[in-house]
Amino acid sequence: MKAELIPDLEQQKIILKEINSTLKRQNQEIPNTNAFNAKLIEQKLLSQQTEHKIRQNHTMDGSRRKYIPIFIVAFVGLTLFAAYSYHENQVPTNTIPNQLANYNSNYVIQNLQGDTVNTWLAWHLVTGQTLHVDIINEASLSPDMIFAVKNSILSTETVSLDDSLLHKGLSGTSSVYYKGWAGALGAASTQTTQFYIPEKFDVSDSPKGVGEIIIKLTRNENPDGLSGYTKSTADGHEILKTTITIYSADQLSANQIGSIMRHEFGHAMGLAHSSAPEDLMHATIQTEYPYISGCDIDAVTALYDGKQSSQVVCQK
Which residue, among 135, 159, 155, 157, has the nearest Cα to 145 in the 3D structure? Predict the structure, then answer.
């Protein structure tokens, strides 16, 4: 009986060893499992954080994408505005050339005895006095043509032109020009001069021609081929009355008649011709930009300060 128990005990001992070995392995695996589970939890947390960041970035990217069209529209709008401002201030080369075709001008100043005067002359007005200008529309021009005539006198609008366009300097530098004599003479009046520079004008369509300055718009052709002719009557160095005649006015465009009027009105203010071919006051209007220049303004300032010559000499 005892001999039979020994193999059973041995068998049980072997089983117990196996159980014990299994338990030891399980006990050893528990920390590894915990570490593995902790690792899994850590990775899951990182994954959640990464996903949250991705969602945030996606949301921000979506917001950016939502605002990108707004930024683009704003940028395009600013660019177009800048381009428009530049366009308005620089005046493209084909703005005026309707073509003036080298329109010729002449002027004469006579004293009360009818003799031609070659010395400087200016209006001797009381400070603040208004000159009255009457337009006699013999050519029956349309209202827009009459407006162009008036605008060449009354406008205060300026335009900035690149100096290279008029051979006045390098590209990138610019000068200010005036579209009307009221603006140009206002600029000249900022300087102290011996005589008051006219800057106030009352322009009307009166057919009576009773103003100090008369403008005749006629269909007649000038026998000498002139487009404009200015005649002033003077007493000594003082201009008393001026008559401007524009010939073949019915064949001119608004730009053309406006350009010729700017030139002739310069004579009405006492200016002689310019020495610069590109200047408005040159004897023959050749420039594509027939506006009142800085040297025209300087000539007016010098003239009304007693300079003995009314010729426009452009230094720039």
Answer: 135
* pLDDT tens string 1-44: 444 545 555 665 565 566 556 555 555 544 444 444 445 445 54
Q: What is the mean pLDDT of residues 284-291?
A: 90
H or E element in which residue 141 lies:
none
Tokens 């945030």 identify what position? 56
Tell me which residue of 234, 227, 152, 217 sits closest to 185, measured CA to CA.
152
Where helices occur in the chain by DSSP H, the ranges are 2-90, 143-154, 181-188, 254-268, 294-303
Quote the pTM value. 0.67
| Pairing of β 174-178 and β 158-162 | antiparallel
CATH architecture under which domain 123-303 falls: 3-Layer(aba) Sandwich (3.40)
Helices 181-188 and 254-268 sit at what angle, rounded to 10 degrees?
A: 30
Encode pLDDT of 132-171 as tens digits: 999 999 999 999 999 999 999 999 999 999 989 888 888 8
- Rounded CA gap, 104 and 272, in Å? 14
| pLDDT tens, position by position, 61-91 | 454 444 444 444 444 444 444 333 333 333 3
**Assigned token pair, 287:** 């420039």
Going from N- to C-terminal start, the domains of the chain cover 16-88, 123-303
Q: Which residues pair with 122 in a beta bridge?
A: 238
Amino acid at 119: T
In this prediction, residue 182 has a pLDDT band, given cuts at 50, 70 and 90, of: very high
Q: CA 253, CA 98: separation in Å to the nearest integer?
A: 7
